[in-house]
Amino acid sequence: MLRYTAHMRDREAGFTLLELMVTVAVIAILAAIALPTYSGQTRKAKAMAEVQPMFSDLQVRFEQYLQEQGVYPATIGEDKLYPSGAPSTTPLPLVSPTTPLPADWQALKVRFSGPDQVRCGYTWVTGPANDGGNIGSIAKASPPLGFGFTVPGTLWYYVLAKCDMDGDSSTFSWYFSSSVDPTIQKINEGS
Prior knowledge:
Blueprint: H1 2-12, H2 17-69, H3 103-108, E1 120-127, E2 134-135, E3 138-139, E4 156-163, E5 173-178, E6 185-187
Antiparallel strand pairs: 1-4, 2-3, 4-5, 5-6
């Protein structure tokens, strides 16, 4: 009996090759599931780390401009993003803001703070009270992509960011905030 027990202990002392292969396969499957989720969350965090301070700065600058001038600055429009190499014109994932800033940005005294390179292009649209969202002949009552916005009974603005967080120019992330609701709304966050 002693011999049988010693033989059993030797056999239970390690893993078989099959057990090791199954363990490695399970770990590989878990990694394949977890890595895309992790990278998606990382892209979302990077986007918010860039967009949130920029939107906050723009909102402060808009209110300062309103106090000084009595109106919000003129619309630059959804088709004119800054920096100019932002996702609307090139699929580059990183774009350096140019110095000096365009005149419409200088009028707001906006400064890019943070990273030297950005992944988003920014713009804004403004309007007078109760205008039905019409700016000249361009209707802007509804921001792009269905972001919720109703023209208020006061002067208004909204800011928009278009980002290429994954470097794939087929899908963009969109971020939106307004004078009506400063909460940042998101579409395709992290894309």
